[in-house]
Design a protein that fits this description.
Shape: globular
Strand content: 15-25%
Distance between the termini: 49 Å
Number of helices: 18
Helix content: 25-40%
Structural class: alpha/beta
């Protein structure tokens, strides 16, 4: 992707850095959270993914708030109020020739977006608030937690020490943790970060909520680590006509987790049409591999063995008919056309690691991924989290992998349930054991799950599957994208522990009475 040009808008005596990307039929202004950096955000996979999705259907206007990123620094002893910072939105819109725009406010950017919508209703096409809140101390952190956060900012800023406060699920992702440390350093200095935190603590926009007249969508992760989901539930009761969408996940930043789900919701809200997948997606088996230093090797010997294993990894993936999909921190990602190939490759890698003098832990999952580029989205995140749960020598797979590998001669044992931040329900998992030329000894667990475990939308989908409708027909019936229907089908199979659409249809028939479910 070509570099995005950065320009500056004048807001009073301060210059605000902004970028414009995309050529959609309407403008979308993205108001960022606590800190930001226009240039650095394009280097993170999730962040750039989100921005590319948003700019595919809009003219996306990005900016760094005054005092952060590429915008002018301000006097930390006399920080501007929320009204002044809100006025920066108007200045950027004027500079880009935007008379009226949809406003997307994320986290600390949400109060600014709400204030703008209430103050300039004629310039606000629609309002989208992600992980937002109206009162800092009530829904983000009380005074004592704030002081602890400020102490971390003043003493450890630039090291990535604040990451657990925002994205605890990414703490063990060394690549992301290094990027986050740079994100801290290049977005604000330590004194400015502490001052900004104190300024944000004064946020209270509860009094202006009734003045918001723009169509409003609220998005919040159910287990958000930073902002209590009750914050958006409160907003939904106070902003006239607001619609709330709660999605799975714990990490707070808008560009972490399932960014495609967030982008789908925003696109459907602002365009009135379900999101359309921009690239072809296929069903694939992903394998995530990491290695452990079980012998307490020195740095030099560990580096040599790690490099040797990576060379072996590339060789064995090719031998088993797979393709290298890249690395993510300490994880090595590969993709296969089927789960049996992925499991056999994982077993070969486990043996190779032992011969080299290290140990491997591996995760395998099946789901839809894009044909081009590195795997991103829910399937990739679940696979990587399975790998982080796997211990030395383990091959941990989702139950669906075992179901799809029936007849392959592979053997699995039940490993219970694993709670993952990306999923609203615990994921049934299995351990791959030594290969035998037998049918899998994968014990069928009692399927006591009831239809109530499905969401209302998933119940609709499974009933239409039972009626013999294709994904395309279901998408037309429910006014969803076919991609969204595919995701619902995958979730249904996982939740109900079923191997196929046919099994889902049979399940629906069993649990449907004469008067309907």
């Amino acid at each position: 992707m070509r570099p995005i040009e950065t320009r500056y808008a004048r807001s009073g005596d301060v210059r605000i850095a902004y970028q414009v990307v995309g050529q959609g039929s309407f403008d979308l202004v993205f108001v960022p959270g606590f800190i930001s950096n226009l240039d650095l955000q394009w280097e993170d996979e999730g962040y750039s993914r989100l921005l590319k999705r948003l700019s595919a259907f809009s003219r996306l206007i990005l900016f760094d708030k005054r005092g952060t990123g590429l915008s002018d620094r301000v006097d930390n002893r006399h920080l501007p109020g929320l009204e002044t910072r809100m006025d920066d939105v108007r200045a950027v819109m004027d500079a880009t020739g935007s008379g009226r725009a949809a406003i997307l406010g994320a986290s600390e950017g949400a109060p600014m977006a709400m204030l703008f919508a209430a103050t300039y209703p004629e310039r606000t096409r629609a309002l989208v608030l992600y992980g937002g809140y109206a009162h800092f101390h009530k829904w983000v952190m009380p005074q004592e937690r704030l002081e602890a956060f400020i102490e971390i900012a003043e003493t450890c800023w630039g090291t990535g020490a604040t990451l657990p406060n925002f994205a605890p699920g990414r703490v063990d992702d060394t690549h992301f943790a290094r990027w986050w440390a740079r994100f801290e350093r290049l977005s604000a200095g330590p004194t400015a970060a502490a001052a900004l935190a104190r300024m944000n603590a004064d946020i209270d926009v509860r009094g202006i909520l009734s003045a918001i007249s723009a169509p409003t969508l609220l998005i919040h992760r159910r287990n958000d680590a930073r902002v209590d989901p009750e914050a958006s539930r409160f907003l939904a009761t106070k902003i006239r006509g607001a619609r709330l969408a709660e999605i799975p996940g714990r990490d707070h930043p808008i560009w972490t987790g399932d960014v495609d789900r967030v982008a789908d919701l925003i696109e459907e809200c602002l365009t009135g049409q379900p999101a359309v997948a921009g690239t072809e997606r296929v069903l694939a088996a992903l394998l995530a591999t990491r290695i452990f230093d079980t012998a307490k090797l020195g740095d030099r010997m560990w580096s040599e063995r790690s490099q040797r294993f990576q060379e072996t990894w590339r060789l064995l993936v090719g031998r088993h008919g797979g393709r290298i999909a890249g690395t993510h921190g300490e994880l090595m990602i590969s993709r296969f056309d089927g789960p049996a190939r992925a499991i056999r490759c994982a077993a070969a890698l486990r043996d190779a690691a032992q011969q080299i003098g290290v140990a491997s832990g591996q995760g395998v999952h099946v789901g839809e991924i894009e044909m081009r580029g590195q795997p991103v989205g829910l399937t990739a995140r679940v696979t990587m989290q399975l790998a982080t749960h796997a211990g030395p020598g383990d091959i941990l797979a989702s139950r669906l992998v075992a179901e799809l590998a029936i007849g392959s001669g592979l053997r699995f044992i039940d490993a219970g349930l694993v709670s993952l931040a990306e999923l609203s329900e615990p994921l049934p998992v299995v351990q791959a054991t030594s290969e035998q030329h037998l049918e899998p000894a994968c014990r069928s667990r009692p399927r006591a799950l009831q239809p109530a475990t499905l969401t209302a939308r998933e119940s609709e989908v499974v009933n239409l599957i039972a009626d013999g409708m294709s994904n395309a027909a279901i998408a037309a019936e429910l006014r969803l994208s076919e991609h969204t229907v595919k995701r619902h089908v995958a979730n249904i199979l996982l939740k109900l522990d079923l191997p196929s659409r046919a099994a889902a249809a049979a399940f629906s028939a069993r649990h449907t009475g004469p008067d309907g479910p």
